[in-house]
Automatic annotation (TrEMBL):
Chain segments annotated as transmembrane: 322-345, 351-372, 393-415, 435-456
Lineage: Bacteria, Pseudomonadati, Pseudomonadota, Alphaproteobacteria, Hyphomicrobiales
GO cellular component: plasma membrane
InterPro entries: DctQ, Transposase-related, Transposase_IS66_central, Znf_dom_IS66
Protein name: TRAP transporter small permease protein
Keyword list, A-Z: Cell inner membrane, Cell membrane, Membrane, Transmembrane, Transmembrane helix, Transport
Organism annotation: Aurantimonas aggregata
Protein's cellular compartments: Cell inner membrane; Cell membrane
Topological category with respect to the lipid bilayer: Multi-pass membrane protein
């Protein structure tokens, strides 16, 4: 824009232009742009590469198996110059190894079709055409290497052709490589059809697409995910026709995607992808003075933490939950027995109340120690949630450090007092008091472990992940 163009703008238009120029650029953290488009940090702010001071060096581990062993024996004693014969016993002073690849070259097998003239009738008889002449001359291993380098290493046909020539001394045309990959596709068809069939019966499907270059042309890489399968599909278009052809009329209960129009209307209900939304909210939080983006960002952070907890393996808690359920069942059975005996038979039972109290003590401390997550506890965290990540880190370090020191300091005295209570028993059930309150020692040990674990995470290099999840560790079981 030239100077004259700026002079013709009104005051409001100039203000809008200046505000747009002051907005930060979108990055992969605040938009759907790929990380490769992010501007690199300036060299004076970049961290130096290589090992950091104090880093413990590590050597390559020796191979478990080897193809050949070479022994090196000393020939002469350096002290007395005596000759050391080969039949003297020896012990290993050190082991070292060298690793080398064998010479790689293609194994070419030439098939000759011979003809022989019959000595009886003089007819020239030729052998049957061998199988080697009916198909491709390239074997299955060459097909496998071509598929691996093309799909996993993303080599172009030109670079793939050069790789075969340089590594194996094998000349293959680009057309031959293309035909080779097409023949290899048939091996993946059954698993592909199984994955698509699972997608077409799924109740929840998540989908996304991104631009990609395929053989020099612009195209799109689509990905579809359900709880049973993940399906990738490359297409020349970004239109909804790709989804309709793949799903063949199946409408899942929930379709999860971004807000792109081609992704809408393919399920009974639509769930906006929270990852896309979180990036947009992060950009809005940077460019706006309104509190709404900040509050929405905090809400999304708690939502992601909740999702991580739901995705955890619940089987590891089965034993702890079973024990807590057993104590609850004992307490409830004692309560019912007391109600029936008191109000139906008019004969109150004293020991049921004692049983309920003991079971309640174990339920409370056992569940708090091993089953409840940090977010399940009551927390006054209004100031914490409104603080930046660096301040939240200090909150966590001070809080967990104080709890760790307090519980660790009182643990020996608590153990001493609980063991001392073995001299007395409950009045009716005659249960030793040290067994009744032993669960509190387990509770203290659990709190000490969780505080120490959380404190190490906050002090570690990945402290931001800990802060985003609220700082605490998950359950012990």
């Amino acid at each position: 824009m030239e100077r004259g163009d700026l002079q013709r703008l009104s005051k409001d238009e100039l203000i809008d232009l200046v505000l747009r120029l002051q907005r930060p650029e979108k990055t992969s953290r605040t938009s759907s742009k790929p990380p490769a488009t992010d501007r690199k940090e300036r060299r004076d702010k970049a961290k130096p590469g290589g090992a950091k001071p104090g880093h413990e060096g590590k050597a390559r581990a020796m191979s478990e198996t080897f193809d050949r062993q070479v022994d090196h024996r000393p020939g002469q004693c350096p002290c007395c110059r005596a000759k050391l014969s080969d039949d003297l016993p020896a012990e290993t002073a050190g082991e070292y190894e060298t690793i080398e690849l064998p010479e790689i070259h293609p194994v070419v097998e030439r098939h000759r079709r011979l003809s022989v003239r019959c000595p009886s009738c003089g007819v020239l008889v030729a052998a049957k055409v061998p199988d080697a002449a009916k198909g491709t001359p390239f074997g299955s291993r060459i097909h496998a290497v071509a598929t691996y380098l093309k799909t996993f290493q993303a080599l172009s046909y030109e670079r793939l052709q050069r790789a075969f020539a340089d590594l194996y001394g094998l000349t293959i045309s680009q057309g031959g490589l293309m035909n080779m990959l097409r023949r290899s596709q048939t091996a993946f068809v059954p698993e592909r059809d199984t994955a698509i069939a699972a997608l077409r019966r799924a109740k929840v499907v998540a989908s996304d697409e991104t631009g990609v270059r395929i053989e020099g042309s612009n195209a799109y890489q689509w990905v579809f995910r359900s709880n049973e399968a993940v399906v990738h599909r490359a297409a020349p278009t970004r239109g909804a026709v790709v989804l309709r052809e793949l799903m063949e009329g199946h409408r899942p209960e929930v379709w999860c995607s971004d807000r792109y129009s081609a992704q809408q209307g393919h399920g009974a209900a639509h769930q906006t992808c929270l990852a896309h939304l979180a990036r947009n909210v992060a950009y809005a939080d940077q460019t706006s003075d309104d509190m709404l983006p900040s509050r929405l960002r905090l809400w999304l952070k708690r939502t992601f933490a909740l999702a991580d907890g739901i995705a955890d393996d619940e089987a590891s808690q089965a034993g702890g939950e079973l024990l807590a359920a057993l104590f609850f069942a004992i307490m409830f059975a004692g309560f019912l027995l007391q109600v029936v005996s008191r109000y139906i038979f008019n004969q109150p039972i004293g020991w049921t109340f004692e049983l309920c109290v003991v079971a309640y003590i174990w339920i409370v401390f056992w569940s708090s120690a091993f089953l409840l997550k940090e977010r399940d506890h009551v927390a006054f965290n209004v100031i914490y949630l409104a603080s930046p990540p660096g301040v939240q880190r200090w909150f966590l370090m001070i809080g967990f450090g104080f709890l760790l020191a307090a519980f660790a300091a009182s643990l020996p005295m608590t153990i001493d007092f609980v063991t001392f209570m073995a001299i007395d028993r409950t009045p009716l059930l005659r249960l030793r008091f040290d067994w009744v309150f032993a669960v509190y020692i387990l509770f203290m040990l659990a709190v000490i472990y969780r505080c120490a674990h959380a404190l190490l995470r906050v002090l570690g290099p990945r402290w931001r992940e800990t802060v985003e999840k609220g700082g605490g560790s998950e359950t012990l079981l």
